Each structure stands twice: as C-alpha cells, then as structure tokens.
TrEMBL record:
Listed name of the protein: Sulfurtransferase TusA family protein
Pfam families to which the protein is assigned, alphabetical: TusA
Similarity comment: family membership: Belongs to the sulfur carrier protein TusA family.
Highest taxon listed in the record's lineage: Bacteria
Organism: Psychrobacter namhaensis
Domain UPF0033 residue range list: 62-86
Length: 153
C-alpha cells in the first residue's frame, strides 16, 4: 500500500484503498456508503478474470445523491479529469437515469480510440437503512459506481 493510502476495505472480488487525497469527510462518506454493499458477491467474484480481481484505488468521490439527470454524469466527467490511469472514481447517485447514463458513458469510452478508457469496475444498487436524523433527506435507492481509468495501450 502506498504512503498516501488509507487502510484497505474488502469488497469481493476487490480490495478498495481510499486515497489520502480524499478529505476526511469524503473518506467517512465513502466508507459509510461502501458498507451498504454486500460484503461478498459470489456471482461477481466468479465472473471476474484474475486481472480484474485487484485493488481499486479511489482517489476521487462524486456524491450525486439528490441530483437530477444529467448532473451526476456531468460531475463524473469533471471529476475524471483528476483521475489518472490505474486510479478509480467512486460515484453515488439517486436518480435512476444515472444508471443508464454512466454505464453508457463508460461503454462509449471503450469504443473510442482514447488514451485512457473507463472500466466500470463496480455497479450496484442498494437501499440504505433508515436514518432518523435526516428524515427529509432520505433516499430509497442508491446507485453505486466505481470507475477505473485504464491504459488502452
């Protein structure tokens, strides 16, 4: 683990490092959101190749909860400017349209001849537990995306 990384979280088939470039508040938010994901997804683990079963280094976080389409995608595009090859961006959204927008955006990057392609390393949908402290801000469905920039060469 590099000196700028925090302890590794495990989400089969991945190990997830949170970079020290994330603020303390972002690290706490990412950690809390990742706990909503199932700890072990055997179907995902068996469908991944050995190369894809790796460590994801999250260096940026986009919180698109409560934002309507196309804002989660636009914020994702802006955040990807600061992500280099081999690094990942964690995006959460509550707008169902973001699911189609972000997966199509990643798929399109793989079809174009660009220096860096985008791999949608993780795409899951969760329902958060009730949070009585913020009743007016409760969202039923959260869409999780971890996008990894890869070198196409």
């Amino acid at each position: 683990m590099s000196a700028d990384s925090q302890p590794t979280l495990t989400y089969a088939p991945y190990s997830i490092n949170l970079s020290a470039t994330l603020s303390g508040a972002e690290q706490q938010a990412v950690d809390a959101l990742l706990t909503l994901l199932p700890a072990n997804d055997a179907a995902t683990a068996s469908s991944k190749t050995e190369e894809e079963q790796s460590t994801l280094n999250i260096v940026r976080f986009v919180d698109g909860r409560g934002l309507a389409c196309p804002m989660p995608l636009l914020k994702t595009k802006v955040a990807l400017r600061d992500v280099t090859s081999g690094e990942s961006l964690y995006v959460v959204a509550t707008d169902a349209n973001s699911q189609a927008d972000i997966t199509a955006f990643c798929r399109q990057s793989q079809q174009t001849d660009t220096a860096n392609q985008l791999l949608l390393s993780l795409h899951r949908v969760t329902n958060p537990p009730p949070d009585d402290s913020v009743p007016s801000q409760r969202f039923d469905t959260i869409y999780h995306f971890i996008i990894t920039k890869t070198d196409s060469n």
